[in-house]
Amino acid sequence: MCGSKFWKSAGICGLLICLGSSFAFRGFSESDKFKAKSKVPLGLREVKFPKDNPSIAEKIALGKQLFFDSRLSKDNSISCSTCHNPNSGWSISERFATGVGGKKGGRNPPTLINVAYNKFQFWDGRSPTLEAQAKGPIEASIEMNISGAELVKKLNAVEGYRSQFQKVFGSDVTFDNITKAIANYERTILSGNAPYDRFKAGDKNALSPSSRRGMKLFFGKANCAACHAGHNFSDGGFHNLGVGMKAKNVDVGRNAVSKLTEDRGSFKTPTLREIAKSAPYMHDGSMKTLEQVIDHYNKGGTPNAQLDEEMYELKLSVQEKKDLIEFLVLGLSSSNFPLHKPPKLPK
User: Fold this and answer.
1) Residue 121 in contact with residue 128, Cβ under 8 Å?
2) Per-residue model confidence as pLDDT tens digits over 141-172
3) Is the peptide bond before 50 cis (omega within 30 degrees of 0)?
4) Class (C level, CATH) for 12-186
């Protein structure tokens, strides 16, 4: 659903994220202990962990506690899960998230579904790893608004956390190890084994006739696969779709990181897995429904100087749009959606 202009500003750093250990897993129970599996869900590739942050069951459990703990914010009001809610497709159902003190940003929280496969983090790709990304919201004044040093002091005063960090990392709480644990956990938020995956694996009844027509459009006339490519339906690149380009104060997106004029208004391609659960859509949450999203692409986006070269009028019929949406909604939604329950928090 976008174009082919995606690696010129990415740089070699994007290739480094997925390097690491070859440890993969399928999922875990909802208890505080997790058992690593040897397989990922059908349709997904192996999850690779950085060499300096290998997957450990106790570390995943610790990361899950931290992810759901509002004590990671300055006033104990929000947690990571506040803006990445499992019940809202690991995003939020509102356009913008609300941080400490009622402050709001200007971007919709991206889903954490299959975030393990991202080559870059944040909509503008400014962070090369999940570990580095986790520090951003914690210290951001409009989000959790607490310094790393203050958070470390706060968590070291919690005996349950201090003892777990000693067990997992061999030291008291540190900011680096907080984010390593969170990143370890986030790599377990996987969604595969959708009807599309079962269809590709040979189950020809996995997709309805309408979904099959939509799939043909997705990979053909509708040109969606130009950007939403691969096992995770994302090329990991950055594209200008014209969204928000008529705003008074334009969000320049990737341009703020790359400083390349052609990246102005470009944002990272999100996964389309579980897309039915993560409305509203686009980087600014400006589209409430998939119908609005399809209409935007169908008209060729919003004209601007940096509009992606693959954005053009699609001329989809009413029925074709319905078929495409059925494929997105039914074909890419898993019956094994990772709906993780909040764990018991340490005292």
Assistant:
1) yes
2) 999 999 999 999 999 999 999 999 999 999 99
3) no
4) mainly alpha
Cβ-count burial of 220 within 10 angstroms (0-12 exposed, 13-18 middle, 19+ buried)? Answer: exposed
* Residues with Cβ within 8 Å of residue 248, at least 6 apart in sequence: none
Q: Is 87 exposed, middle or buried (0-12, 13-18, 19+ CB in 10 A)?
A: exposed
- Report the alpha-carbon distance of residue 212 to residue 202 in Å, rounded: 13
In contact, 19 and 273? CB cutoff 8 Å: no
**21 near 55, Cβ under 8 Å?**
yes
pLDDT in tens, 84-142: 999 999 999 999 999 999 999 999 999 999 999 999 999 999 999 999 999 999 999 99
What predicted TM-score, i.e. pTM, was given to this entire model?
A: 0.89
Alpha carbon distance 109, 12 (integer Å): 26
Q: What are the distances in angstroms from CA 214 to CA 56, 291, 345?
A: 40, 14, 44
Residue of 68, 89, 162, 12 whose CA lies nearest to 328: 89
Active-site positions read 143
Q: Does domain 195-331 have CATH number 1.10.760.10?
A: yes
Domain boundaries, given as residue ranges, for the chain: 12-186, 195-331
